[in-house]
Structure of DNA helicase RecQ:
Amino acid sequence: MPQEKALSVLQNTFGYTQFRGHQGDIVQHLIEGHDALVLMPTGAGKSLCYQIPAMVRSGVGVVISPLIALMQDQVDALTELGVRAAFLNSTQDYETSRSIEQDLHSGTIDLLYVAPERLLMPRTLSLLQSLDISLFAIDEAHCVSQWGHDFRPEYIKLSVLHQLFPRTPRVALTATADAQTRAEITLRLQLEEAREFVSSFDRPNIRYTIVEKNNGRAQLLNFIKNEHAGSAGIVYCLSRKKVEETADFLNKNGINALPYHAGLDIETRAANQARFLREDNLVMTATIAFGMGIDKPNVRFVAHLDLPKSVEGYYQETGRAGRDGAPADAWMAYGLQDVVQQRRMIAESEANDEFKHTQFTKLDAMIGLCETIDCRRVHLLNYFDQASSACGNCDTCLHPPKAMDGTQLLQKLLSTVYRVKQRFATGHVIDVLRGIDSERVQQFRHDNLSTFGIGKEISEAEWRAVVRQAIAHNLLTVDFEHYNALLLTELARPVLKGERTIKLRLYQKPLKTKRSSSPY
Ligand code: ADP
Ligand code: ZN
């Protein structure tokens, strides 16, 4: 009975009493020799889904993973449990890989970890063809997606497995699961026959908070000091420079922080990562180069000082918090500059139009999450096609933002942009709205405009929030070629004519959270 065998491996080898979620069904399905696509959030227990079938079926289970740096640890952990595991990758010397090949031939290995580039070498493929293979597990399968930042070209070539080993079950696993990535995995890995196992993507212990950015670093410091003094956390920044600066800033302000980005040499990166895994009061400030496969259960917060490029990225990065199930925070500071900067990076990239279009769409979904006046979690899960109800554990649930009909404010803004002939940037447009008699206003005689001073009722900061939301709603764009001038889009017209009303998120004054004071 395969079921009994699987349960006995779970209990006797891994020491767990029962399967969690879909694990049992997936294990059964693979033992029976079928293909599967497994979508499970980080920390839910993907590994057992292929480890146990590999041990129950005859032959060696081949695990394809891009995380070369972690293979040694994974194999060590399995060996400690008495599982016969090994890995093949480029860090090994010839002697070592020779001896592993011998063990494979004599059938004394149940699980073999291999990097995709190594697997695809003709030598490795013919080695595998001479063996009895129990299954192929393709871990981090979203690496096959060209749209994600984890794209690995070799992953696309993994379709060769289906051609060379048509009878061997294959399972692809990932924690990234928007519909497009899912479809791409199925298509590129030729998993049309695979059954999909989709777990809930909710991470109820994570509290989502997105604050309006005014001084990001100071807000971050407040957040850490008030909510997470002495905790392990990750702070994501867009650029290497900002990673370094933020680490310095935190250290100067009494928070232990280390930098991590691809520009550091390998030894420093490895040392910083090792310290982060070992110590419990360290903050890693990092680019997105840091994180995939980092299995540290007690990361208490993940903070973003810059806007992620997509909701998948945000979900994946914030998902590194609270893997132990205890309360954790996903905190982000977000502002107008983020929208402008990210749109600009896409616009100015070398990519073709189709690629740019996809990137813009993904970014807009991310901006939508920042601007939503509904529950963040509902919005986030909805992006992954999962329905849910208001969570009570995100900033919009805990402190519902004031949503107001913003049509009038937007009309004032849009018509001012029109009257300054779409040639001026945000600061000046706001000056005109607020009736500020600046030098530039004088110079261009903008005090004569009919919209001069029609926006005195709200502050400059509030106007910035209105501009940001106008850009987020694609009513305005920024002309990067001409001093970041604000330009009207096609979508501005119906708002100006009063044919479309738009709700705006009102500027948030500092509030207290239940736990302690929070910086927004
Ligand atoms: P993922 O790869 O999905 O991020 P892992 O496979 O690393 O997750 O598992 C996350 C944690 O959950 C590990 O510490 C693992 O030992 C534990 N775990 C997995 N399955 C079970 C189970 N059935 N019962 C208890 N703990 C489990
Ligand atoms: Zn909520």
